[in-house]
Amino acid sequence: MQSGFSVCRRKAGQTFRKTLGLYNYKLGHQQYHKEPGSVSLNAVEQLKNTKTYEGIMRIRKLRQESDRVFGKFVGTKFVVDKSRIPQYDIPDLTGFELKPYVSYHTPQVDKETQAKLERMNDFNLTENLVPRSETKLLEKK
Predict the structure, then answer these.
(1) Burial, 55: exposed, middle or buried (Cβ in 10 Å; 0-12, 13-18, 19+)?
(2) Same domain for 21 and 77?
(3) Is residue 67 part of a domain?
(4) Minimal CB count within 10 Å: which of 1, 33, 44, 66?
(5) Alpha helix locations (H) across 33-92?
(6) How many domains, the chain?
(7) How many Å apart are CA 85 and CA 70, to the nearest integer?
């Protein structure tokens, strides 16, 4: 019996790169080795695409010799050192009135262009309801 659901597969790390950047924690159960932030996902994907034993061994060597290691390898297991994980100090903003930020580089819109845009978006006008090819014919008459 077939199910009505289709499975959509993505490349390894595709969704993580969008949300968390190149270095991230992978999802997995509690005993799963998550390899936290040791090697960029682009490098891992390129080496995995070679599908050779040398590529796999090179990934393992890169992970062990990485600058961004949040722990150390003890034998074959990776032990996370919580003192190496970056911590963010978030200030308490109670009683602080936030003001909207306006960029200095915001372009100024002329009144003429603003009027043109309003006229183009006004669907009460007949010229916006008629296709452009027909409006040229109407103007010639």
Answers:
(1) middle
(2) yes
(3) yes
(4) 1
(5) 41-49, 53-64
(6) 2
(7) 6
Per-residue DSSP letters for 77-124? EEEE-GGGS----PPP-TT--------TTPPPPPHHHHHHHHHHH-TT
Which residue, 24, 60, 56, 19, is CA-closest to 40?
24
Mean pLDDT score across all residues of the chain: 69
Is residue 33's pLDDT more than 70? no
CB of 84 closer than 8 Å to CB of 71 = yes
Distance from C-alpha of 62 to C-alpha of 54, rounded to nearest angstrom: 12
Would residue 102 count as lying in a domain? no
Burial of 25 (0-12, 13-18, 19+ CB in 10 A): middle
Question: CB-based contacts of 29: which residues, under 8 Å, 6+ apart?
Answer: none
CB-count burial class (<10 Å; 0-12, 13-18, 19+) for 126: exposed
With 80 as the cut, is the pLDDT of residue 73 above it?
no
Does some domain include residue 39? yes
Q: Where are the alpha helices (DSSP H) in 35-122?
A: 41-49, 53-64, 111-121
